[in-house]
UniProtKB/TrEMBL annotation:
Record domain Malic enzyme NAD-binding: where: 231-489
PANTHER family assigned: MALIC ENZYME-RELATED, NADP-DEPENDENT MALIC ENZYME
One Gene Ontology MF term: NAD binding
Record-annotated active site: 63 (proton donor), 135 (proton acceptor)
GO terms for cellular component: mitochondrion
Needed cofactors: Mg(2+); Mn(2+)
Keyword set includes Oxidoreductase: yes
UniProt record, GO biological process: malate metabolic process
Protein's name according to its UniProt entry: Malic enzyme
Keyword Metal-binding: yes
Residues that, per the record, bind (S)-malate: 117, 376, 420
Organism superkingdom: Eukaryota
PROSITE patterns: MALIC_ENZYMES
Amino acid sequence: MSVARFPPHFKNTDHRQRCLVQLRSKQVALEKYIYLNGLKGRDSNLFYDILLDNMQELVPILYTPTVGDACVNYSHIWRRPEGLFVSIEDKGHIREVLSSWPNIHDSRIAVVTDGSRILGLGDLGANGLPISVGKLDLYIAGAGIKPTSTVPICLDLGTNTQKYLDDPLYIGVRRQRPGPAEMDAFMEEFMQAMKDVFPHLVIQFEDFSTDNAFKYLDKYRSQYTVFNDDIQGTGSVILGGFINAARLSSAASNLPLSDHKILFFGAGSAGIGVAKQLLSFFTMSGLSEEEARKRIYTVDSKGLITADRKGLQEHKKFFARTDYNGPALTNLVDIIKYVKPTALLGLSTMRNAFSEEVVKAMSGLNKRPIIFPLSNPVALSELDYSDAIQWSNGEVIFASGSPYKPVSHGGKDFEPGQGNNMYIFPGIGLGTILSKAHHVSDGMVEQAANALASSLNAEEQAAQLVYPRLGRIRDISAQIALAVIRQAQKEHLDDNAYLRTLPDAELFGLIQDKMWQPPVLRTKALGML
Ligand SMILES: NC(=O)C1=CN([C@@H]2O[C@H](COP(=O)(O)OP(=O)(O)OC[C@H]3O[C@@H](n4cnc5c(N)ncnc54)[C@H](O)[C@@H]3O)[C@@H](O)[C@H]2O)C=CC1
Ligand SMILES: CC(=O)C(=O)O
Ligand SMILES: [Mg+2]
Protein backbone atom coordinates (compact mmCIF):
# COMPACT_ATOMS: atom_id res chain seq x y z
CA MET A 1 0.00 0.00 0.00
CA SER A 2 1.40 3.39 -0.93
CA VAL A 3 1.41 6.14 1.69
CA ALA A 4 0.55 9.67 0.63
CA ARG A 5 3.51 11.94 1.30
CA PHE A 6 4.31 15.61 1.07
CA PRO A 7 6.74 16.37 -1.75
CA PRO A 8 10.37 16.31 -0.54
CA HIS A 9 10.84 20.08 -0.98
CA PHE A 10 7.44 21.08 0.34
CA LYS A 11 7.49 24.07 2.69
CA ASN A 12 4.44 25.40 4.49
CA THR A 13 5.71 28.94 4.17
CA ASP A 14 5.72 28.56 0.36
CA HIS A 15 2.35 26.91 0.38
CA ARG A 16 0.60 30.05 1.60
CA GLN A 17 2.03 31.90 -1.39
CA ARG A 18 1.17 28.95 -3.67
CA CYS A 19 -2.48 29.22 -2.61
CA LEU A 20 -2.53 32.92 -3.46
CA VAL A 21 -0.92 32.22 -6.84
CA GLN A 22 -3.52 29.54 -7.56
CA LEU A 23 -6.31 31.89 -6.50
CA ARG A 24 -5.02 34.80 -8.58
CA SER A 25 -4.60 32.61 -11.66
CA LYS A 26 -8.39 32.30 -11.90
CA GLN A 27 -10.00 34.87 -14.15
CA VAL A 28 -13.63 34.45 -13.12
CA ALA A 29 -14.70 35.69 -9.67
CA LEU A 30 -17.00 32.69 -9.10
CA GLU A 31 -14.06 30.33 -9.76
CA LYS A 32 -12.08 32.19 -7.12
CA TYR A 33 -15.02 31.67 -4.74
CA ILE A 34 -15.05 27.94 -5.49
CA TYR A 35 -11.30 27.75 -5.00
CA LEU A 36 -11.45 29.52 -1.62
CA ASN A 37 -14.36 27.36 -0.53
CA GLY A 38 -12.30 24.27 -1.37
CA LEU A 39 -9.31 25.64 0.54
CA LYS A 40 -11.52 26.23 3.58
CA GLY A 41 -12.69 22.63 3.37
CA ARG A 42 -9.11 21.29 3.14
CA ASP A 43 -7.49 23.55 5.73
CA SER A 44 -9.68 26.14 7.40
CA ASN A 45 -6.83 27.57 9.51
CA LEU A 46 -4.81 28.35 6.42
CA PHE A 47 -7.91 29.78 4.73
CA TYR A 48 -8.60 32.22 7.60
CA ASP A 49 -4.92 33.09 7.91
CA ILE A 50 -4.84 34.06 4.23
CA LEU A 51 -8.18 35.87 4.54
CA LEU A 52 -7.01 37.96 7.49
CA ASP A 53 -3.93 39.12 5.59
CA ASN A 54 -5.78 39.86 2.36
CA MET A 55 -9.17 41.27 3.41
CA GLN A 56 -9.32 43.91 0.68
CA GLU A 57 -8.79 41.30 -2.03
CA LEU A 58 -10.77 38.38 -0.62
CA VAL A 59 -13.85 39.98 0.97
CA PRO A 60 -15.34 40.92 -2.45
CA ILE A 61 -15.07 37.21 -3.37
CA LEU A 62 -16.40 35.63 -0.18
CA TYR A 63 -18.98 38.36 0.31
CA THR A 64 -20.71 40.89 -1.95
CA PRO A 65 -20.57 40.94 -4.94
CA THR A 66 -19.34 37.40 -5.70
CA VAL A 67 -21.29 35.64 -2.95
CA GLY A 68 -24.33 36.78 -4.95
CA ASP A 69 -23.15 34.68 -7.93
CA ALA A 70 -22.40 31.81 -5.57
CA CYS A 71 -25.98 31.92 -4.26
CA VAL A 72 -27.58 32.20 -7.69
CA ASN A 73 -25.56 29.16 -8.83
CA TYR A 74 -25.31 27.25 -5.55
CA SER A 75 -27.20 24.15 -6.67
CA HIS A 76 -24.65 23.76 -9.45
CA ILE A 77 -21.44 24.60 -7.58
CA TRP A 78 -22.32 22.74 -4.35
CA ARG A 79 -19.43 20.50 -3.24
CA ARG A 80 -19.74 19.66 0.44
CA PRO A 81 -22.00 20.25 3.45
CA GLU A 82 -21.14 23.56 5.10
CA GLY A 83 -24.21 24.56 7.08
CA LEU A 84 -27.62 23.50 8.29
CA PHE A 85 -30.66 23.26 6.07
CA VAL A 86 -33.87 23.23 8.05
CA SER A 87 -36.66 22.23 5.72
CA ILE A 88 -40.38 22.86 5.87
CA GLU A 89 -40.59 19.07 5.59
CA ASP A 90 -38.81 18.88 8.96
CA LYS A 91 -41.81 20.51 10.67
CA GLY A 92 -42.63 18.56 13.82
CA HIS A 93 -39.02 17.46 14.44
CA ILE A 94 -36.91 20.58 13.92
CA ARG A 95 -35.22 20.02 17.28
CA GLU A 96 -33.75 16.71 16.07
CA VAL A 97 -32.46 18.39 12.90
CA LEU A 98 -30.72 21.14 14.90
CA SER A 99 -29.34 18.58 17.34
CA SER A 100 -27.40 16.97 14.50
CA TRP A 101 -25.07 20.02 14.39
CA PRO A 102 -21.60 18.90 15.56
CA ASN A 103 -20.57 21.82 17.80
CA ILE A 104 -23.71 22.51 19.79
CA HIS A 105 -22.04 23.46 23.08
CA ASP A 106 -19.50 25.71 21.40
CA SER A 107 -22.09 27.46 19.20
CA ARG A 108 -22.43 31.20 19.83
CA ILE A 109 -23.70 32.86 16.66
CA ALA A 110 -26.06 31.73 13.89
CA VAL A 111 -26.88 33.56 10.69
CA VAL A 112 -30.31 32.43 9.52
CA THR A 113 -31.74 33.21 6.10
CA ASP A 114 -34.86 31.87 4.41
CA GLY A 115 -33.37 32.68 1.01
CA SER A 116 -36.36 34.82 0.04
CA ARG A 117 -34.44 38.08 -0.71
CA ILE A 118 -30.74 37.38 -1.10
CA LEU A 119 -28.96 40.75 -1.52
CA GLY A 120 -31.05 42.39 -4.25
CA LEU A 121 -31.28 39.14 -6.21
CA GLY A 122 -34.74 38.02 -5.10
CA ASP A 123 -36.02 34.62 -4.03
CA LEU A 124 -33.19 32.09 -4.37
CA GLY A 125 -34.72 29.43 -2.10
CA ALA A 126 -32.24 26.94 -0.65
CA ASN A 127 -29.49 28.52 -2.75
CA GLY A 128 -29.31 31.21 -0.07
CA LEU A 129 -26.98 29.29 2.27
CA PRO A 130 -23.75 30.99 1.04
CA ILE A 131 -24.99 34.35 2.39
CA SER A 132 -25.06 32.84 5.89
CA VAL A 133 -21.64 31.27 5.32
CA GLY A 134 -20.21 34.55 3.97
CA LYS A 135 -21.56 36.63 6.86
CA LEU A 136 -20.08 34.15 9.33
CA ASP A 137 -16.70 34.27 7.58
CA LEU A 138 -16.80 37.99 8.34
CA TYR A 139 -17.61 37.23 11.98
CA ILE A 140 -14.57 34.97 12.09
CA ALA A 141 -12.19 37.27 10.21
CA GLY A 142 -13.67 40.58 11.39
CA ALA A 143 -14.47 39.88 15.03
CA GLY A 144 -12.39 36.80 15.84
CA ILE A 145 -15.34 34.51 16.53
CA LYS A 146 -14.09 30.91 16.63
CA PRO A 147 -15.10 29.04 13.42
CA THR A 148 -16.56 26.19 15.48
CA SER A 149 -18.82 28.70 17.26
CA THR A 150 -20.61 29.69 14.06
CA VAL A 151 -23.78 28.10 12.66
CA PRO A 152 -24.81 28.94 9.09
CA ILE A 153 -28.49 28.13 8.55
CA CYS A 154 -30.77 28.23 5.52
CA LEU A 155 -34.46 27.65 6.08
CA ASP A 156 -35.55 25.60 3.10
CA LEU A 157 -39.19 26.62 2.75
CA GLY A 158 -39.59 26.30 -1.01
CA THR A 159 -39.18 29.03 -3.61
CA ASN A 160 -41.45 31.04 -5.85
CA THR A 161 -38.72 31.26 -8.49
CA GLN A 162 -39.83 28.89 -11.22
CA LYS A 163 -36.40 28.44 -12.82
CA TYR A 164 -35.17 26.78 -9.62
CA LEU A 165 -38.22 24.55 -9.35
CA ASP A 166 -37.54 23.47 -12.94
CA ASP A 167 -33.81 22.92 -12.38
CA PRO A 168 -33.05 19.19 -12.01
CA LEU A 169 -30.01 20.03 -9.85
CA TYR A 170 -31.93 22.34 -7.46
CA ILE A 171 -30.97 21.37 -3.89
CA GLY A 172 -34.08 22.58 -2.05
CA VAL A 173 -37.63 21.31 -1.58
CA ARG A 174 -39.58 21.62 -4.80
CA ARG A 175 -42.62 23.61 -3.72
CA GLN A 176 -43.95 27.15 -3.58
CA ARG A 177 -43.29 29.13 -0.41
CA PRO A 178 -45.82 28.68 2.40
CA GLY A 179 -48.52 31.22 3.16
CA PRO A 180 -48.27 33.37 6.32
CA ALA A 181 -49.99 30.93 8.72
CA GLU A 182 -47.81 27.95 7.73
CA MET A 183 -44.67 30.11 7.79
CA ASP A 184 -45.54 31.55 11.23
CA ALA A 185 -46.07 28.04 12.65
CA PHE A 186 -42.73 26.92 11.19
CA MET A 187 -40.91 29.94 12.65
CA GLU A 188 -42.48 29.34 16.08
CA GLU A 189 -41.19 25.77 16.19
CA PHE A 190 -37.82 26.78 14.74
CA MET A 191 -37.16 29.57 17.25
CA GLN A 192 -38.19 27.46 20.24
CA ALA A 193 -36.01 24.60 19.01
CA MET A 194 -33.05 26.98 18.55
CA LYS A 195 -33.39 28.08 22.18
CA ASP A 196 -33.62 24.49 23.41
CA VAL A 197 -30.72 23.14 21.37
CA PHE A 198 -28.37 26.17 21.43
CA PRO A 199 -28.93 27.90 24.78
CA HIS A 200 -26.12 30.48 24.29
CA LEU A 201 -26.78 31.53 20.75
CA VAL A 202 -27.09 35.02 19.24
CA ILE A 203 -29.27 34.82 16.11
CA GLN A 204 -28.85 37.12 13.13
CA PHE A 205 -31.80 37.15 10.72
CA GLU A 206 -30.57 37.77 7.20
CA ASP A 207 -32.20 38.46 3.86
CA PHE A 208 -35.79 37.64 4.70
CA SER A 209 -38.25 39.35 2.33
CA THR A 210 -39.29 42.72 3.72
CA ASP A 211 -42.66 41.90 5.34
CA ASN A 212 -41.26 38.86 7.12
CA ALA A 213 -38.08 40.72 8.08
CA PHE A 214 -40.11 43.28 10.03
CA LYS A 215 -42.62 40.73 11.31
CA TYR A 216 -40.15 38.24 12.80
CA LEU A 217 -37.88 40.91 14.22
CA ASP A 218 -40.82 42.51 16.04
CA LYS A 219 -42.13 39.15 17.16
CA TYR A 220 -38.91 37.58 18.45
CA ARG A 221 -36.61 40.40 19.58
CA SER A 222 -38.01 40.45 23.11
CA GLN A 223 -38.11 36.66 23.43
CA TYR A 224 -34.70 35.69 22.02
CA THR A 225 -31.26 37.20 21.49
CA VAL A 226 -31.93 38.11 17.90
CA PHE A 227 -31.37 41.02 15.53
CA ASN A 228 -32.08 41.64 11.88
CA ASP A 229 -28.98 42.57 9.94
CA ASP A 230 -30.78 44.18 7.01
CA ILE A 231 -32.90 46.45 9.21
CA GLN A 232 -30.70 47.11 12.26
CA GLY A 233 -27.21 46.30 10.99
CA THR A 234 -27.73 48.39 7.86
CA GLY A 235 -29.37 51.17 9.88
CA SER A 236 -26.39 51.24 12.20
CA VAL A 237 -23.68 51.16 9.52
CA ILE A 238 -25.31 53.95 7.52
CA LEU A 239 -25.86 56.09 10.61
CA GLY A 240 -22.14 55.67 11.40
CA GLY A 241 -21.06 56.66 7.88
CA PHE A 242 -23.66 59.39 7.59
CA ILE A 243 -22.40 61.16 10.71
CA ASN A 244 -18.99 61.48 9.05
CA ALA A 245 -20.43 62.35 5.63
CA ALA A 246 -22.70 65.05 7.05
CA ARG A 247 -19.77 66.64 8.89
CA LEU A 248 -17.76 66.83 5.65
CA SER A 249 -20.71 68.17 3.69
CA SER A 250 -21.66 70.69 6.37
CA ALA A 251 -18.07 71.92 6.67
CA ALA A 252 -17.99 72.61 2.92
CA SER A 253 -21.16 74.69 2.89
CA ASN A 254 -21.51 75.97 6.46
CA LEU A 255 -24.74 74.05 6.90
CA PRO A 256 -25.89 73.20 10.44
CA LEU A 257 -26.08 69.40 10.87
CA SER A 258 -29.76 69.62 11.79
CA ASP A 259 -30.50 71.21 8.39
CA HIS A 260 -29.63 68.08 6.42
CA LYS A 261 -32.48 66.51 4.49
CA ILE A 262 -32.35 62.90 3.38
CA LEU A 263 -34.10 61.32 0.42
CA PHE A 264 -34.40 57.51 0.46
CA PHE A 265 -34.79 55.85 -2.92
CA GLY A 266 -36.15 52.42 -1.94
CA ALA A 267 -38.41 51.81 1.06
CA GLY A 268 -38.01 48.11 1.86
CA SER A 269 -36.52 46.51 4.98
CA ALA A 270 -33.19 48.20 4.34
CA GLY A 271 -34.51 51.63 3.29
CA ILE A 272 -36.93 51.96 6.20
CA GLY A 273 -34.46 50.34 8.65
CA VAL A 274 -31.86 52.95 7.74
CA ALA A 275 -34.36 55.83 7.73
CA LYS A 276 -35.50 54.96 11.27
CA GLN A 277 -31.92 54.74 12.50
CA LEU A 278 -31.09 58.09 10.91
CA LEU A 279 -33.74 59.76 13.05
CA SER A 280 -31.13 59.68 15.79
CA PHE A 281 -28.70 61.64 13.60
CA PHE A 282 -31.17 64.52 13.82
CA THR A 283 -32.12 64.05 17.46
CA MET A 284 -28.38 64.03 18.31
CA SER A 285 -28.19 67.32 16.37
CA GLY A 286 -30.84 68.84 18.62
CA LEU A 287 -34.15 68.17 16.84
CA SER A 288 -37.21 66.55 18.40
CA GLU A 289 -38.35 63.13 17.09
CA GLU A 290 -41.14 64.80 15.15
CA GLU A 291 -38.83 67.39 13.61
CA ALA A 292 -36.38 64.58 12.75
CA ARG A 293 -39.08 62.63 10.92
CA LYS A 294 -39.79 65.66 8.74
CA ARG A 295 -36.16 65.74 7.53
CA ILE A 296 -36.63 62.32 5.87
CA TYR A 297 -38.43 61.57 2.59
CA THR A 298 -38.99 58.10 1.14
CA VAL A 299 -39.55 56.93 -2.43
CA ASP A 300 -40.64 53.53 -3.68
CA SER A 301 -41.46 52.15 -7.13
CA LYS A 302 -44.58 54.33 -7.22
CA GLY A 303 -42.77 57.57 -6.38
CA LEU A 304 -42.65 59.88 -3.37
CA ILE A 305 -44.48 58.11 -0.54
CA THR A 306 -47.39 60.19 0.68
CA ALA A 307 -49.88 59.36 3.41
CA ASP A 308 -52.87 59.68 1.09
CA ARG A 309 -51.72 56.78 -1.09
CA LYS A 310 -54.20 53.88 -1.00
CA GLY A 311 -53.09 50.48 0.31
CA LEU A 312 -49.79 51.74 1.72
CA GLN A 313 -47.84 48.90 3.38
CA GLU A 314 -47.49 49.17 7.14
CA HIS A 315 -43.72 49.71 7.17
CA LYS A 316 -44.00 52.69 4.78
CA LYS A 317 -46.51 54.66 6.86
CA PHE A 318 -44.13 56.20 9.39
CA PHE A 319 -42.30 58.37 6.82
CA ALA A 320 -45.25 58.93 4.45
CA ARG A 321 -45.54 62.67 3.80
CA THR A 322 -48.60 64.57 4.85
CA ASP A 323 -47.32 67.90 3.51
CA TYR A 324 -47.47 67.17 -0.22
CA ASN A 325 -50.81 67.48 -1.97
CA GLY A 326 -49.90 67.77 -5.66
CA PRO A 327 -50.00 65.10 -8.35
CA ALA A 328 -47.98 61.93 -7.62
CA LEU A 329 -44.27 62.65 -7.98
CA THR A 330 -42.71 59.68 -9.77
CA ASN A 331 -39.60 61.02 -11.52
CA LEU A 332 -36.50 61.10 -9.31
CA VAL A 333 -35.20 64.40 -10.68
CA ASP A 334 -38.60 66.01 -10.07
CA ILE A 335 -38.60 64.59 -6.55
CA ILE A 336 -35.10 65.99 -5.91
CA LYS A 337 -36.20 69.41 -7.17
CA TYR A 338 -39.18 69.31 -4.82
CA VAL A 339 -37.42 67.93 -1.72
CA LYS A 340 -34.03 69.66 -2.15
CA PRO A 341 -32.18 66.94 -0.22
CA THR A 342 -28.58 67.19 0.96
CA ALA A 343 -28.30 63.37 0.80
CA LEU A 344 -29.64 60.70 -1.56
CA LEU A 345 -29.53 57.09 -0.34
CA GLY A 346 -30.33 54.18 -2.67
CA LEU A 347 -31.73 50.88 -1.37
CA SER A 348 -33.89 50.07 -4.36
CA THR A 349 -32.06 47.31 -6.32
CA MET A 350 -32.41 49.61 -9.37
CA ARG A 351 -29.17 49.54 -11.35
CA ASN A 352 -28.06 52.99 -12.58
CA ALA A 353 -31.15 54.69 -11.15
CA PHE A 354 -28.91 57.61 -10.16
CA SER A 355 -28.35 58.98 -13.66
CA GLU A 356 -26.13 61.87 -14.70
CA GLU A 357 -29.15 64.16 -14.42
CA VAL A 358 -29.80 62.92 -10.87
CA VAL A 359 -26.19 63.46 -9.76
CA LYS A 360 -26.11 66.90 -11.40
CA ALA A 361 -29.38 67.84 -9.71
CA MET A 362 -27.83 66.87 -6.34
CA SER A 363 -24.63 68.81 -7.20
CA GLY A 364 -26.68 71.85 -8.20
CA LEU A 365 -28.25 71.89 -4.73
CA ASN A 366 -25.18 71.05 -2.64
CA LYS A 367 -21.49 71.95 -2.78
CA ARG A 368 -20.71 68.44 -1.56
CA PRO A 369 -23.74 66.17 -2.12
CA ILE A 370 -23.95 62.95 -0.13
CA ILE A 371 -24.86 60.08 -2.45
CA PHE A 372 -24.89 56.50 -1.13
CA PRO A 373 -25.95 53.88 -3.71
CA LEU A 374 -26.30 51.01 -1.25
CA SER A 375 -27.97 48.22 -3.23
CA ASN A 376 -26.07 44.95 -3.60
CA PRO A 377 -24.44 43.34 -5.46
CA VAL A 378 -22.50 45.74 -7.73
CA ALA A 379 -24.67 44.79 -10.70
CA LEU A 380 -27.65 46.36 -8.89
CA SER A 381 -25.89 49.46 -7.62
CA GLU A 382 -27.77 52.71 -8.29
CA LEU A 383 -24.52 54.45 -9.31
CA ASP A 384 -20.97 53.50 -10.26
CA TYR A 385 -18.20 55.30 -8.43
CA SER A 386 -16.40 56.58 -11.53
CA ASP A 387 -19.65 58.16 -12.82
CA ALA A 388 -20.34 59.70 -9.41
CA ILE A 389 -16.91 61.34 -9.35
CA GLN A 390 -17.06 62.52 -12.94
CA TRP A 391 -20.61 63.90 -12.82
CA SER A 392 -20.04 65.71 -9.52
CA ASN A 393 -16.58 66.89 -10.54
CA GLY A 394 -15.05 65.04 -7.59
CA GLU A 395 -17.28 66.71 -4.97
CA VAL A 396 -19.56 63.76 -4.14
CA ILE A 397 -19.35 62.15 -0.69
CA PHE A 398 -19.85 58.55 -1.67
CA ALA A 399 -20.40 55.15 -0.10
CA SER A 400 -21.75 52.09 -1.88
CA GLY A 401 -23.08 48.76 -0.62
CA SER A 402 -20.59 46.72 -2.66
CA PRO A 403 -16.94 47.63 -3.18
CA TYR A 404 -15.60 49.92 -5.89
CA LYS A 405 -11.99 50.62 -6.77
CA PRO A 406 -10.44 54.09 -6.27
CA VAL A 407 -10.61 56.38 -9.30
CA SER A 408 -8.58 59.34 -10.61
CA HIS A 409 -10.18 62.53 -11.84
CA GLY A 410 -8.62 65.88 -12.73
CA GLY A 411 -5.21 64.65 -11.54
CA LYS A 412 -6.54 63.62 -8.11
CA ASP A 413 -7.15 60.19 -6.61
CA PHE A 414 -10.51 59.46 -4.93
CA GLU A 415 -11.28 56.55 -2.59
CA PRO A 416 -14.86 55.29 -2.17
CA GLY A 417 -16.47 54.22 1.11
CA GLN A 418 -18.26 50.92 1.50
CA GLY A 419 -21.50 51.41 3.43
CA ASN A 420 -22.15 47.79 4.19
CA ASN A 421 -23.41 46.19 7.38
CA MET A 422 -20.22 44.09 7.40
CA TYR A 423 -18.64 46.89 9.46
CA ILE A 424 -21.30 46.52 12.15
CA PHE A 425 -22.67 43.02 12.65
CA PRO A 426 -19.35 41.42 13.69
CA GLY A 427 -18.98 43.97 16.51
CA ILE A 428 -22.64 43.78 17.58
CA GLY A 429 -22.43 39.98 17.64
CA LEU A 430 -19.14 39.95 19.57
CA GLY A 431 -20.35 42.49 22.13
CA THR A 432 -23.61 40.61 22.62
CA ILE A 433 -21.81 37.26 23.04
CA LEU A 434 -19.24 38.58 25.51
CA SER A 435 -21.73 40.51 27.64
CA LYS A 436 -24.16 37.56 27.46
CA ALA A 437 -26.87 40.13 26.71
CA HIS A 438 -30.37 38.67 26.64
CA HIS A 439 -31.52 41.00 23.88
CA VAL A 440 -30.08 43.30 21.24
CA SER A 441 -31.62 46.68 22.08
CA ASP A 442 -32.05 49.78 19.93
CA GLY A 443 -29.56 51.47 22.24
CA MET A 444 -26.91 48.81 21.52
CA VAL A 445 -27.44 49.25 17.76
CA GLU A 446 -27.16 53.03 18.07
CA GLN A 447 -24.01 52.88 20.18
CA ALA A 448 -22.48 50.55 17.57
CA ALA A 449 -23.07 53.28 14.97
CA ASN A 450 -21.48 55.96 17.14
CA ALA A 451 -18.45 53.75 17.78
CA LEU A 452 -18.08 53.14 14.03
CA ALA A 453 -18.35 56.87 13.29
CA SER A 454 -15.60 57.62 15.85
CA SER A 455 -13.30 54.86 14.65
CA LEU A 456 -11.59 56.73 11.80
CA ASN A 457 -7.88 57.17 12.44
CA ALA A 458 -5.97 60.36 11.60
CA GLU A 459 -4.95 59.13 8.17
CA GLU A 460 -8.50 58.14 7.25
CA GLN A 461 -9.80 61.49 8.44
CA ALA A 462 -7.15 63.32 6.43
CA ALA A 463 -8.24 61.35 3.35
CA GLN A 464 -11.85 62.48 4.10
CA LEU A 465 -13.12 58.90 4.31
CA VAL A 466 -16.50 58.18 5.87
CA TYR A 467 -15.70 54.54 6.78
CA PRO A 468 -12.45 53.07 8.09
CA ARG A 469 -10.32 50.86 5.86
CA LEU A 470 -11.23 47.19 5.84
CA GLY A 471 -7.77 46.05 6.92
CA ARG A 472 -8.55 47.49 10.38
CA ILE A 473 -11.79 45.55 10.80
CA ARG A 474 -10.71 43.71 13.97
CA ASP A 475 -9.80 46.95 15.68
CA ILE A 476 -13.12 48.47 14.55
CA SER A 477 -15.09 45.43 15.73
CA ALA A 478 -13.40 45.61 19.14
CA GLN A 479 -14.36 49.29 19.47
CA ILE A 480 -17.96 48.49 18.47
CA ALA A 481 -18.11 45.49 20.83
CA LEU A 482 -16.93 47.72 23.70
CA ALA A 483 -19.69 50.25 23.01
CA VAL A 484 -22.29 47.46 22.69
CA ILE A 485 -21.22 45.89 25.99
CA ARG A 486 -21.35 49.22 27.85
CA GLN A 487 -24.83 49.91 26.51
CA ALA A 488 -26.04 46.40 27.43
CA GLN A 489 -24.73 47.06 30.95
CA LYS A 490 -26.46 50.45 31.09
CA GLU A 491 -29.77 48.82 30.16
CA HIS A 492 -29.19 45.86 32.53
CA LEU A 493 -29.43 43.40 29.65
CA ASP A 494 -26.04 41.79 30.36
CA ASP A 495 -25.25 38.66 32.30
CA ASN A 496 -21.49 38.91 32.70
CA ALA A 497 -20.86 40.82 35.91
CA TYR A 498 -17.07 40.55 35.59
CA LEU A 499 -17.01 42.84 32.54
CA ARG A 500 -18.69 45.54 34.64
CA THR A 501 -15.66 45.65 36.93
CA LEU A 502 -13.23 46.51 34.12
CA PRO A 503 -12.29 50.04 33.08
CA ASP A 504 -12.60 50.71 29.33
CA ALA A 505 -8.94 50.11 28.49
CA GLU A 506 -8.94 46.72 30.22
CA LEU A 507 -12.24 45.72 28.69
CA PHE A 508 -10.89 46.68 25.27
CA GLY A 509 -7.81 44.50 25.91
CA LEU A 510 -9.99 41.60 27.01
CA ILE A 511 -12.11 41.87 23.85
CA GLN A 512 -8.98 41.78 21.72
CA ASP A 513 -7.58 38.83 23.68
CA LYS A 514 -10.80 36.89 23.14
CA MET A 515 -10.44 37.12 19.36
CA TRP A 516 -9.62 33.82 17.74
CA GLN A 517 -6.47 33.66 15.64
CA PRO A 518 -5.85 30.93 13.07
CA PRO A 519 -3.18 28.67 14.60
CA VAL A 520 -1.22 28.49 11.36
CA LEU A 521 2.08 29.36 12.96
CA ARG A 522 1.79 26.33 15.20
CA THR A 523 0.99 23.97 12.33
CA LYS A 524 3.75 25.58 10.30
CA ALA A 525 6.18 24.86 13.11
CA LEU A 526 5.05 21.25 13.23
CA GLY A 527 5.71 21.02 9.51
CA MET A 528 2.19 19.95 8.65
CA LEU A 529 -0.82 21.55 7.04
N1 LIG B 1 -25.43 48.19 1.93
C1 LIG B 1 -25.92 47.33 2.80
O1 LIG B 1 -25.31 47.04 3.85
C2 LIG B 1 -27.24 46.70 2.52
C3 LIG B 1 -27.83 46.80 1.31
N2 LIG B 1 -29.03 46.21 1.08
C4 LIG B 1 -29.56 46.27 -0.26
O2 LIG B 1 -30.75 47.02 -0.28
C5 LIG B 1 -31.50 46.59 -1.39
C6 LIG B 1 -32.96 46.54 -0.95
O3 LIG B 1 -33.18 45.58 0.04
P1 LIG B 1 -34.63 45.45 0.74
O4 LIG B 1 -35.00 46.75 1.33
O5 LIG B 1 -34.63 44.32 1.67
O6 LIG B 1 -35.50 45.08 -0.53
P2 LIG B 1 -36.97 45.41 -0.93
O7 LIG B 1 -37.22 44.70 -2.20
O8 LIG B 1 -37.87 45.18 0.22
O9 LIG B 1 -36.96 46.99 -1.18
C7 LIG B 1 -36.72 47.58 -2.39
C8 LIG B 1 -37.40 48.95 -2.38
O10 LIG B 1 -37.05 49.63 -3.57
C9 LIG B 1 -38.21 50.14 -4.17
N3 LIG B 1 -38.06 50.19 -5.61
C10 LIG B 1 -38.01 49.17 -6.48
N4 LIG B 1 -37.96 49.65 -7.73
C11 LIG B 1 -37.96 50.98 -7.63
C12 LIG B 1 -37.95 52.03 -8.58
N5 LIG B 1 -37.92 51.80 -9.87
N6 LIG B 1 -37.98 53.30 -8.14
C13 LIG B 1 -38.01 53.55 -6.82
N7 LIG B 1 -38.03 52.61 -5.87
C14 LIG B 1 -38.01 51.34 -6.28
C15 LIG B 1 -39.32 49.16 -3.79
O11 LIG B 1 -40.60 49.77 -3.92
C16 LIG B 1 -38.93 48.85 -2.36
O12 LIG B 1 -39.45 49.85 -1.52
C17 LIG B 1 -30.91 45.26 -1.83
O13 LIG B 1 -30.19 45.47 -3.04
C18 LIG B 1 -29.96 44.90 -0.75
O14 LIG B 1 -28.84 44.22 -1.24
C19 LIG B 1 -29.71 45.55 2.07
C20 LIG B 1 -29.16 45.41 3.31
C21 LIG B 1 -27.85 45.94 3.60
C1 LIG C 1 -25.37 43.56 2.78
C2 LIG C 1 -26.65 42.91 2.97
O1 LIG C 1 -26.95 42.43 4.06
C3 LIG C 1 -27.59 42.85 1.88
O2 LIG C 1 -27.33 43.41 0.83
O3 LIG C 1 -28.63 42.22 2.06
MG1 LIG D 1 -28.60 41.18 3.93
